[in-house]
Amino acid sequence: MKKNIIRVISILVLTVVLLSACQWIMGSDPDSSPMGIFNYFWEDFNVSYALFDIKDINWNDVYNDHVTRINSNMSDVELLDVLGDMIEVLNDSHVWIDASVQFGSLEFLRKSSKSPLLGDPDFEDFSSDSLAQHYLIDGGTYLNKDFLYGRFISHPNIGYVYIYSFAGNTPIGVNDWAKKIDGILDELRSTNAIILDIRNNGGGYLANMDYIASRFASVQMPYKQVSTKNGPGKNDFSTPMTYTISPASNAYTKPVVLLTNIETASASEWFTMALKDQPNVTHAGSKTHGALSVKMPRYLINGWDYSISIQRVTSRDGTTYEGVGISPEPDYYFPADNSLIDDITHVWRDSQILNTLDYLDGIL
Questions:
Q1: Which of 19, 101, 167, 289 fits as disulfide partner to 265, beta carbons 3.0 to 4.6 Å?
Q2: CA–CA separation, 261 vs 265, rounded Å?
Q3: What is the Cα–Cα distance from 44 to 21, expressed in whole angstroms?
Q4: Which of 109-123, 185-199, 208-222, 339-353 has the lowest mean pLDDT?
Q5: What average pLDDT does range 25-34 have in this prediction?
Q6: Up-side HSE of residue 136: CA atoms within 13 Å toward CB?
Q7: How confident is the model at residue 346 (pLDDT cuts 50, 70, 90)?
């Protein structure tokens, strides 16, 4: 009950921040000219974006670099290009501007951060379907694409749980799908270890993440601190709020390997912070994406919508992972070092899973 109250209060605080930020920047009726929209957009980030210092970005310089491209005769597409180029400087996966409703095409959704698919050395081709087919007994069990779980063909004493997302139909309270983890752990209770896989998990809601993480924690431990932008000054932030993970009564406290990759983002990175220092958990795979702030939706007078990262999120010891990602210890860093099809066996190969199984062979 106490945790639910805290979550509701947190959501109310974010709502107040959103309304307050509108008051900081709006004043009189907004100017709908290209220059008016450009200035409104820039100023909203100027007073609301939480990560300029962390990313070492001078937002005034960004303004000067882009304002010369604005003129009264420019088209909407040209204006979108300028705004999109401006936020691209932030390299933040939680920042975007979307004009696709107006133009009827997703081509007009501009994201700040490029996909790590474009040559990132930590990206590994990953398919849960292929993993189920080639690695799990009888292909494992799917639960509505919320979970995939089972035991390994080569290691029936080792369980496997894949979590597709922490999203759901409501941000308040634990969604019903997340509670299915209890039944999954009942089925895997007799295993000697579990590989807990959140590769390509793009995040979701805190309540779902917290509920599932508590099923793998063995000790109560603070894991992150969060400060929210709450005023127009660059140092206007709320007092940091500390989040703690506590083990559930039915927690699986045998060895757990938490597997991440470059597509592990947002709430999945909170999940990583919540578990990586647990005594029974080893963080393995490759680094996470590095996008931990809550994103706040915004709207322009011309109907376009966009988002702003309004929080600073650090580990319990103050480490910042924003834009960097959370890396496993070197001994457990299993990078993408194989192609999707193994050159020798000519079947699908998941090198991170195989490296993790080798590691568990050495400790069980």
A1: 289
A2: 9
A3: 7
A4: 109-123
A5: 70
A6: 22
A7: low
Question: 328-342: per-residue pLDDT in tens?
Answer: 999 999 986 655 566
CATH number at residue 357: 3.90.226.10
Of 68, 83, 111, the residue that ends a domain is 111
Q: Across the beta sheet with 109-111, what order do the strands follow?
A: 109-111, 96-98, 305-309, 295-299
Residues shown for the chain: 364
**Predicted pLDDT at 24:** 43
pTM for this predicted structure: 0.88
Domain that holds residue 358: 128-216+251-290+325-363
Task: Please tell me whether residues 58 and 167 are part of one structural domain.
Answer: no
133 and 192 together in one domain: yes
Same-domain pairing of 59 and 143: no
CB 127 within 8 Å of CB 164: no
* Mean pLDDT (the chain, rounded): 88
- pLDDT tier, 26 (very low <50, low <70, confident <90, very high otherwise): very low
Residue 72 forms part of a structural domain: yes
Taking residue 163's Cβ as centre, other Cβ atoms within 10 Å add up to: 22
Angle at 297 between CA 268 and CA 224, to 5 degrees: 35
